[in-house]
Design brief:
583 residues; alpha+beta; D-amino Acid Aminotransferase, Chain A, domain 1; OB fold (Dihydrolipoamide Acetyltransferase, E2P); eight-stranded mixed β-sheet; seven-stranded mixed β-sheet; 21 helices; binds adenosine monophosphate
Length: 583
């Protein structure tokens, strides 16, 4: 396929405000895509050259892209930068320059998707002395061969601004519709996706070898597995009634790490499947020293630890370790400990089908004693009082609460179900758990707050079935001035002139925001609401959060699709009011 044709699809996707229409356009695109371009087209749709977990970055900011545009169209760099200032989009600047140069080729005479993808990959892998010059040169050569619309989309990729608002489940639906005309393949595609996290691999396998081959894709070292997640229940009794005798572990509030070991090589992935190895050197070193297997995939929670006071630090402190600069200094100041709680793969064997009890035994022998990686402690509780003892102990130690795990359950990648149940401490008058929301808009304030450009946030949750973000509440109070400023800064790159296609809201904010920024919110209660769209789907009333307040920014470790789902909200609504432990 010509890149100019793909650019047309990008433009149709960008203009679309309905999720079903996105799926239709994707299905049409994929049905015309040759099998050897399905993977690259998929990554390009996400503005990338590889799946999210591969840290392949193009490494060119607006200024270098402006250099390339100037070179491609014999223009002055300052003219390009002026356009960029005026339009706020380096892609739009490229399009104008290409149109005005009068030199742009006709779309049908332009390079194909493969050529553009290969050029971008070359640019991304060029490093060392003189590499910037070569990157600019290669991008300029490609721009000179493309039509104006293609130039626009191409230039948005290096600067990370190709935002088409297409989520991973929407792409899976697009595959299914392209192949069979409905979404009946979605479940099978989703299983492969949960285990490999690589949409391009799944698309390519589907096109080359068919759906049965997709069914054979499974956990492999180097592909992060989408993490198993926990459900909620309101009390110790409810947990034991549902799970039977259950393993009880403390719930640590740090960063979830999934660690892959292949011989001497270690990769650490975050909960949102980003590679974080470089930020956590002591965990990588400890894996080599403490893991008794050639190959392994295991999971744990990393917490910052103060070696002087011998205390674990709260989440906000631990987040300082995610910064990518000064890693060595911060590692000395805030060393991490990892509480390993599950194992998925050992020496060539996928052990996710084993029971929790069997996996724990394997974990105990996998991790050798040491200072950095500790196997999280567990007890098996038959009685509520045993669970409550661990819960109180955890809360007294400043931890969040407990995780209860069903003894005979497998590890189910990407699933949130009652194999794992969390029980968190709560103040009276609060919901027992925070809700992870996605910012979808903001409303300008009056008075003091207008100085920060935001008066209230409109936030949504994730409707997993429909892959959209319906509104659930407005947050107008409880943020410090610094937090308002931070919200504004984080949302700025995602401001959208129109309602984004995957957002659903009856309320019209002053400014729409692409669903990208995840915040953790604590509310007093969930109420039914005629105003908010979460859970409305055909019914008259949706659900809303009452008295919501911001607890933390979670966009470092959660992608928008990791936000709390509508289904969870409905379940939390049904379980309100119970106390986790008797007063
Ligand atoms: P939440 O993010 O509130 O849904 O809680 C689930 C998260 O708790 C997991 O993703 C882990 O990051 C974290 N966690 C902390 N301690 C444990 C544990 N012992 N077992 C499993 N997950 C844990």
């Amino acid at each position: 396929m010509l890149f100019s044709e793909l650019a047309h699809y990008f433009s149709r996707l960008e203009e679309t405000t309905k999720r079903n229409a996105l799926v239709e356009i994707l299905a049409e695109l994929f049905s015309k895509t040759p099998e050897d371009e399905v993977a690259s087209t998929t990554y390009l749709l996400q503005g990338r050259l590889a799946p999210f977990f591969k840290p392949i970055e193009i490494g060119m900011g607006n200024n270098y892209v402006a250099d390339a545009i100037a070179r491609a169209f014999d223009a002055d760099r300052t003219v390009v930068l002026q356009r960029f200032d005026r339009l706020g989009d380096i892609g739009a600047a490229a399009r104008e320059m290409a149109e005005e140069s009068g030199k742009a080729p006709r779309p049908e005479d332009t390079p194909d998707v493969r050529a553009v993808f290969d050029t971008l990959t070359n640019i991304a892998t060029t490093s060392g002395a003189g590499s910037i010059e070569r990157k600019v040169g290669d991008l300029a050569t490609m721009l000179a061969q493309l039509d104006p619309l293609s130039c626009m989309y191409l230039c948005r990729i290096p600067v990370g601004k190709l935002r088409l608002g297409v989520g991973d489940p929407t792409i899976l639906d697009g595959y299914s519709f392209a192949k069979v005309g409905d979404k009946s393949l979605r479940k099978r595609l989703e299983r492969a996706y949960n285990e490999t996290s690589d949409l391009g691999l799944i698309g390519e396998t589907l096109w080359r070898e068919g759906i049965d081959a997709v069914d054979r894709l499974s956990i492999q070292i180097g592909n992060p597995v989408r993490p198993a997640l926990a459900e909620r229940l309101p009390s110790a009794e409810a947990i034991l009634t549902k799970l039977g005798p259950a393993a009880i572990e403390k719930k640590f509030d740090g960063f979830r790490c999934q660690i892959h070991k292949l011989g001497d090589e270690v990769r650490i992935y975050s909960r949102n499947l980003e590679e974080m190895t470089g930020a956590f050197p002591e965990i990588a070193d400890a894996t080599l020293a403490q893991v008794a297997a050639e190959t392994a995939i295991f999971e744990g929670e990393a917490l910052a630890y103060n070696p002087l006071s011998d205390e674990y630090l709260p989440f906000q402190e631990t987040t300082r370790r995610r910064r990518k600069h000064n890693v060595a200094d911060t590692a000395l100041e805030l060393p991490l400990r990892l509480f390993a709680f599950d194992v998925l793969y050992i020496d060539g064997d996928n052990i996710t089908p084993l029971t929790y009890t069997e996996r724990r035994e394997r974990l105990q022998t996998l991790i050798r004693p040491g200072d950095t990686i500790l196997v999280s402690e567990e007890i098996v509780a038959n009685e509520a009082s045993e669970l409550i003892t661990v819960f109180n102990d955890a809360v007294q130690g400043g931890l969040e609460g407990i995780m209860a795990k069903k003894l005979d359950s497998p590890y189910q990648a990407g699933a949130r179900n009652y194999n794992w149940v969390k029980l968190k401490r709560a103040q009276s008058g609060e919901l027992q758990d925070t809700v992870d929301c996605v910012v979808i808009g903001y409303i300008y304030g009056r008075g003091k707050r207008s100085a920060f450009g935001v008066g209230a946030l409109l936030v949504g949750v994730y409707d997993q079935e429909r892959d959209i973000f319906p509104s659930i509440t407005k947050i107008g109070t409880g943020l410090t001035d610094a937090e308002w400023r931070e919200v504004r800064e984080r949302c700025e790159p995602y401001v959208s002139a129109e309602k984004p296609a995957r957002v659903e809201s009856l309320l019209q904010p002053s400014v729409w925001v692409e669903p990208e920024v995840v915040i953790e919110v604590l509310a007093d209660e969930i109420t039914r609401s005629p105003v908010h769209s979460a859970g409305m789907n055909g019914e008259k009333q949706g659900y809303a959060l009452r008295f919501p307040r911001l607890i933390s920014f979670r966009d470092l470790d959660k992608r928008p699709e990791d936000a709390t789902t509508v289904q969870e909200i409905v379940e939390m609504y049904g379980k309100q009011g119970a106390k986790p432990v008797p007063a």
